[in-house]
Amino acid sequence: MAAKRDYYEVLEVARTASDEEIKNAYRKLAMKYHPDRNAGNKASEERFKEISEAYEILSDADKRRQYDRFGHEGVKSSFGPNGFDFSRDFTHVSDLQDLFGGIFEQFFGGGEGRRSGSTRASRGADLRYDLEIEFEEAAFGVEREIVLPVSEECPACRGSGAEPGTKKETCKHCGGRGAVVTSSGFFRMQQECPVCSGRGEIVVRPCRACGGAGAVKARRKITLKIPPGVDTGSRLRLSGKGESGSRNGQPGDLYVVLHVRPHDIFQRQGEDMFCEIPVPLSTAMLGGEIKVPTLDGAARLSIEPGAENARMYRLRGKGIPELGNDRNRGDLHVRIRIETPKNLSGSQKKKVRELFDAFSGACFPDVNAFNRRADEFLDRRKKSEKP
Ligand SMILES: [Zn+2]
Ligand SMILES: [Zn+2]
Asked: Which of 26-40, 204-218, 257-271 has the lowest mean pLDDT?
């Protein structure tokens, strides 16, 4: 085992150093070599133990005098038979809070949010609000007022949770620190005080307005500006419109998630719109104009003579405005569905028959071409079947 280093050397101070100088030196070195900042680094851990041991002796006037006169031998009895044992012999852990201040909270307290009950400011929660809007509102944007249930700082107790006029008591369990130190193996750990939930104070008479919670439910009206081009699933983020933070913490954000109601005429795919329009057989035969509903009013669409069923037409720029650039718009796609006449009377049927009897084969080129191919096929089959 290597010879023990001189305690003054370890703390990098002169033999004449004042208590304050020793304390400062220790704070600086302990922060540098603290195991939480050097996870898994064995050398740092050894160094931290060495620093802690030196501080244990030099910060105590009696032990320091013993050490000055007799060296390491003089303070051997300060420790157990195996020498310095951090978890047993280090009595300054409870002082670490004072030594390290806020930094120590970072070491042991974890990140923000874990210490919800602590005395530190904490950011308010984000809120989600689901809003249903009409197809046209999604296309062109709309202003909507929503009422949001939020929790706000109780105005009666100003968030303290104590009945106005009464005082809080310092938590006896943790002495107001909000944290307690427990041994866990080699190191002592600092944990949130279970009695006061880290607040360091106990409410003796809870506020009647909020029941001691420090917050009350409120309804907040917010006017939303929904831009043109949004779709189902679009999210609007309203910075700072979420739950208010506790103890002067930042408020959270509000996310409005949009749901667009289906339209009875149009379907939508991105910025393009789709619409199926029934067209009378006569229009399909002879050609003509049909009326097409669009977001901008009625439009005319001309159908050429002999149009087939399911033919697609595109009306450019009659779709949905692009989100963030509403001068760009998608297209409206129209698919025609040719309607065959139904519910014909006897005389109507007679006239139709007369009409179609007058048609030549050229009137139905596809039918004739198909029938020819089909007949040829059937002929071949017949011949091959013959023995
Ligand atoms: Zn209150
Ligand atoms: Zn406490």
From this structure: 26-40
Query: What is the reported pTM?
Result: 0.56
Regarding whether 356 and 327 lie in a shared domain, the answer is no
Q: Is the pLDDT of residue 222 over 70?
A: yes
Tell me, in angstroms, the distance from the centre of ligand 1 to residue 179's CA: 24
Give the Cα-Cα-Cα angle 135, 138, 144 (nearest 5 degrees).
Answer: 110
Q: Give residue-wise pLDDT tens across range 159-181.
A: 888 899 888 888 888 888 888 88
- Ligand of minimum distance to the alpha carbon of 117: 2
Any domain includes 175: no
Tokens of 370: 């198909």
> Cα separation of 364 and 285, whole Å?
11
- The Å distance, Cα 220 to ligand 2 centre, comes to 34
Give me ligand 1 centre to Cα 206, in Å.
8
Q: Minimum-distance ligand to the CA of 192? A: 2
| Predicted confidence (pLDDT) at residue 214 exceeds the cutoff of 90 | no
Query: Is the C-alpha dihedral spanning 301, 304, 307, 313 positive or negative?
Result: negative
For 156-178, the DSSP string reads TTTTS-BPTT--EEE-TTTTTSS
Helix ranges (H only) for 59-95 are 61-70, 86-89
Q: For residue 146, how far is its CA from the centre of ligand 1 (angstroms)?
A: 26
Tell whether the model's pLDDT for residue 105 goes beyond 50: no
Range of the domain at 148: 123-153+213-261
Please tell me whether residues 249 and 286 are part of one structural domain.
no
Query: Distance, CA 159 to ligand 1 centroid (Å)?
Result: 6
Question: 333 and 354 share a domain?
Answer: no
Ligand nearest to the CA of 166: 1
Specify the number of domains making up the chain.
Answer: 4
Residue 377 domain-assigned (yes or no): yes
